[in-house]
Amino acid sequence: QVLAYNRHTYETVAQSLVLTVVPAPGGEPPFQGEFLVGNRDVEELLPPTAQDTFIQATAGVWERHDLHVINVTSALDRGGRVPLPIEGRKEGVYVKVGSHGTFSPCLASAVSPQSRFRCRLGQQPLASCYDTFAPLFAIRWCNLTLLQVWPSPTAPGPVWGSGILEEDGDFQPPTEAAPQDLLPGYLVTLLVPLAVAVLLCLLLGHLMCCRREGV
After folding, report:
1. What is the pTM of this model?
2. What values do phi and psi take at 125, rounded to 5?
3. Cα separations (Å) of 166 from 158, 170, 174, 187?
4. Transmembrane ranges (predicted)?
5. Contacts of 132 (CB under 8 A, 6+ apart)
């Protein structure tokens, strides 16, 4: 179920969608890069035409042609702040792109330790190529994340037998537990609170009846 709201009137609309997830023909791409687009909202990058434009811009810096969008997430879901109501301010969008080819030297230099150090100083990160995203997409290169995902080996499942016991395979039930004497524990659980209650009643009666003024 998808719940949407109007930014201006705050009206909400709910719609149920049935999604069928099928594995990718070539499997999950092992090389994935996540870009933060600062001048877009999440709904602006959901249409296929906008994603195609973003893929074309990504191909210029990745130097690959087998790219495709894996995920689109609003920056507000990653802890981003709601933008001020000023013309041109956007929420920001994280776009994850995958490929079966390695990262280009341009992307590798953008996430290098020297580039991260410049980002901590508030400077522009290192980039050895022309930014093909501009001017349509303002990429925040200090938030670039490169991932190399390898498929994890699947554990072998259980081996089912025929369901018939083999010869000399009689079932041996577990031995019976020795009987236990539960009377001492029962008496302790019952008598100790009763004795404490009697003592408290005697103490309260003594204070109320024998400690009165003039007695």
Report:
1. 0.60
2. -70, 165
3. 19, 8, 20, 51
4. 183-205
5. 57, 58, 59, 60, 61
Neighbours of 214 (CB within 10 A): 3
Tokens 């302790």: give the residue: 188
Is there a contact between 31 and 43 (Cβ–Cβ < 8 Å)? no
Q: What are the strands, taking DSSP E only, across the chain? A: 2-5, 12-15, 31-37, 68-74, 93-99, 145-148
pLDDT of res. 132: 85
Q: Which of 67, 63, 141, 66 is nearest to 103 (CA)?
A: 63
Residue type, 102: T
For residue range 74-100, what is the model confidence (pLDDT) as tens digits? 888 888 777 776 777 788 899 999 998
What is the mean pLDDT of the segment spanning 7-28? Answer: 83
DSSP assignment letter at 44: G
Predicted local distance difference test score (pLDDT) of residue 13: 93
Whole-number Cα distances in Å, 181 to 11, 169, 178, 192: 68, 36, 10, 19
103 contacts 33 by C-beta, under 8 angstroms: yes
Q: Please name the residue that has the structure tokens 């410049």.
A: 118
Residue 102 Cα distances to 3, 60, 65, angstroms? 38, 14, 12
Tokens 């030297």 found at: 105
Burial code (b: 16+ CB inside 10 Å, e: under 16) for 36-46 equals bbbbbbbeebe
> b vs e for 155-183, b when ≥16 Cβ sit within 10 Å of the residue's Cβ?
eeeeeeeeeeeeeeeeeeeeeeeeeeeee
CA dist., res. 90 & res. 175, Å (int): 70
